[in-house]
Each structure stands twice: as C-alpha cells, then as structure tokens.
Amino acid sequence: MGDAEIGDRVDDDAQRGRDPTVEQVPNTDVAVYHALYEPLPGGFQKAISVGEELLRRPGQEKNAMLHAWLAAAYGQQHAYEQSRGASEAELQSIKDKVVREINAAIAAEPRTRDLLRSLWKPQPNAEDRDLESFPPDDPDLTRLLGAS
C-alpha cells in the first residue's frame, strides 16, 4: 500500500469514527492491552483471541504483561457473563483462566502482583476494574495477590 493509499484509508477511518492507529497495531501484547478498552463484548473477545494466539509463539510464556492483560480480558468476560446470568460452571471455567493467567504473570514477573491486585480491588475512582467481579475475599485471588 502506498503512502497516498494509507493516507486515504486513515482519512476514511477517521470519518467513520474509528481510530486508525489502534486498528493498525499488529498482534502484540500492546494490541491485547488496547482491545481491553474497546466496547464489550468485542473488546475482551479480541484481547483473548489475540492473546491466546500470541501465547502459542516461542518465548511468550514468559511475557508477564501479556499474561496480565489476558487475566484482565478474562476478568471482563467474567463480569460480562455474570451480568448475563451465566451458569456457575461457565463462570468457574472463566475464573480458572483468570487464575491461570495471574499465576503465569507472577511467575514471569512478581511485580505484576500489585497491578493485578489493583484490578481486583481498585481504588474508588479507578478506571481499570477488570477483576472486580470476583469477591474481595475470593480465596484463589487472595492466595495469589494477597489480602490488601
């Protein structure tokens, strides 16, 4: 695609209300992060799809932020499905994925624990609340992230 064609596409995207810079992010952990801010359910679905595909690439199992963003995406999915009356079995399946990703993030980089805890027990005015649908005394999250 030539420069003129790219410029035309960016202009066209802008006229349609899409952010062309976000849509052109390649499949990286940054794309997973950006998808978390897209409308539900498409945002978390995209984050999960891209993130799971990335995890199949060599070396990505040690990418702490990829695991953290996947935990956030599954947390969004949990809240969404919970609000739609999903069964306990469905919610438990999603929670198992959250726990798996939290474990992997902390194993890759222990300092992600604070970020993930802030998504579970956010400050009152926090924008990011991706794990808040889990109770504040959830035994699995408490074991992984600590009580405070």
User: Could you describe the largest sheet, including whether it forms a barrel?
Assistant: none
Our count of domains comes out at: 1
Q: Care to count the β-strands?
A: 0
Mean pLDDT: 87
Strand content: under 5%
Q: How many distinct helices? A: 8
Order of helices and strands: HHHHHHHH
Secondary-structure class: mainly alpha
Distance between the termini: 51 Å
Radius of gyration: 17 Å
- What ranges have pLDDT less than 50 throughout 5 or more consecutive residues? 1-22
| Overall form | globular
Task: Give the helix level as a range of percent.
Answer: 55-70%
Describe the structure in your own words.
The protein has one domain (about 5-145). The chain has eight helices and no strands. The protein has helices at about 5-15, 20-25, 30-35, 40-55, 65-85, 90-110, 110-120, 140-145. Helix 5 (about 65-85) packs parallel to helix 7. The longest helix is centred in the middle third of the chain and has 21 residues, at about 90-110. The radius of gyration is 17 Å and the shape is globular. It starts with a helix and ends with a helix. Residues about 1-20 have low confidence and may be disordered.
